Structure prediction request, 589 residues.
Amino acid sequence: MKNEKAIKLISKIDDKYVDEALSYGQDGNNEPGIEKKTGHRRVMNFRWVAAAAAVILVVAAFSVARNISAEAKEYAAAVEYFKTNGMSTEGLSRTEIKETYRRIITTKEEILARSTKGTWAGVEVYKLSREDYILLLKADKEIAAYANYVRKRFNPDYDPYDVEIAPSGEYIYVPEPDRDVLYAKFFKGEYVTDPDVAIDNIPYSSFEDLLFNINIGIIYLGQDSSVVEYNEPRHSDIGFLMRFCPTEVMRERPDGTRYLIYDTDENCRVFFMMSPDRPQAFTVGYPILYKNKLCYADFKDIKPGDTLTTVSQVDDACEIYRRVWFEAYKFDKLGFENNDPMRHSTIHYLTDGLLEIQYDKLNEDGDPVVKAVNYYPDYKMETYTFKLLDYRINPLDLPESK
Amino acid sequence: MDDDKIIDLLFERSEQAIVELSKKYGTVLLKTAGNILNNKQDAEECVNDAYLVVWNSVPPKRPKKLLVYTCGIVQKLALKKYRTKSAQKRNGTFDLALEELEEFIPSNALVEDEALENELSKAVNEFLEKIKTADRIAFVKRYRLGESLTDIAGELHTTEHSISVRLYRIRKELKKFLIKEGFLNEK
Prediction:
């Protein structure tokens, strides 16, 4: 406990002193008043030090050359394996590529070798026992780390290893290039493409279910899910939603992009935008939580420095965000305190545009403080991955239109 | 490349910015993470994570001091990792530095009070302002940057023993100061 307090204490040492300590010795800045060891003895030692260094250098160079050669061979083999299996090395360091390769060719292949090959929804898959499935996930450091993260952040009681099973209840492993194809098949419903046709069978899912009980990191209310857009491996959002909140309809807009709709408590409706790059498989951007019919003028007095409570007086859907941030996302309070670059925003779908209100810290009462108010009259907002996402919702899908 | 240029590259969303950042400060960042984590691979991961945080946060942020900003991120990430790992194994150097500091943490129930924590860190910063530059550098290197006595001695061109004695004196002075300010009981 004291150790934790000591960590907190040192974290708060002023940055200017850290700067001073870090820049000591740089650019000739080395005059803090501590005497240097100089003079005769240093000069005398120099020749011996230089000779020893030369010997060490020769030995080290030989040894390094041998290591580099072995390392280069392994790296080349790893890159080749990535290429052959359609895996991307983008964003991975050389060490990470080699480690992933080592992990795959040992443990993962052993597990897959004893599994049964088969097809699921027309895609070739490995069918595994639950034990092997968990072993496979654990063998993959990335998946295991993600599972732990999800467990810690969202729901400590939830078994993250249950996430990737197909809606059929089978434990399957899908080789990387086919994953999206399979994930897309998790949705077996109808796409409503006619903009003049209203959707009359919107499913209901309670707040408790949608945002708390079953939320294992798929739904980021108030956070842009694009932050994990290119995470690999990534759980199938659509698989998760279809398993826990099944629906038979998805709206397809004229440009081919889609969104899912759920009715929930307090007459709220939730919209999940689906990634245009990986259709149907993953959510992208912020979920839209729609409760009240409002326009931009309703928010005219909101400014940086206000709090979530103030914004809530205009749109009481904010209280749902608050609950999720502080009750479902166990670590969001820390996110605020640590200047987590992940934005926390309430998103207000208005009659005349989209409003994003960003919060960046907590005030003394623990109330999130408004950092910025961004208005998008064309409903288009940039995602975390710098893509312009169109949030326009067919007016027939908004609750008051019915 | 100077910091402003690197920040400009970040604003232009040029990945070259991270290359330059790594070239310029990679070693010191790795060292900072390594001081806390005592594991090269963990330290490398931590520094890579920090680059991603920098990439994601600049813009909109425009740090005044790029090294301090990045180093702060590295330290936060390293401390997070340290917390999760410290239950499993101990890291000699950093644990020792923390233990040296623990005598300044009041052990009564009030330590849970966040306001008190803030006051305490304010007092420590006040104390640092008053002491000699050389002492302050040694203190910050040891406790904030988690450097070993050997490293500090090397960087400040003195002996390990001298640094050890110097830090002992600073801690003694700090204790006196905190007693005077009412944070610690006189014993």
Summary: The interface with chain B takes residues 2-15, 17-25, 32-37, 93, 95, 338-339, 341-342, 384, 386 of chain A (CB under 8 Å). The radius of gyration of chain A is 27 Å. The longest strand of chain A covers residues 353-362.
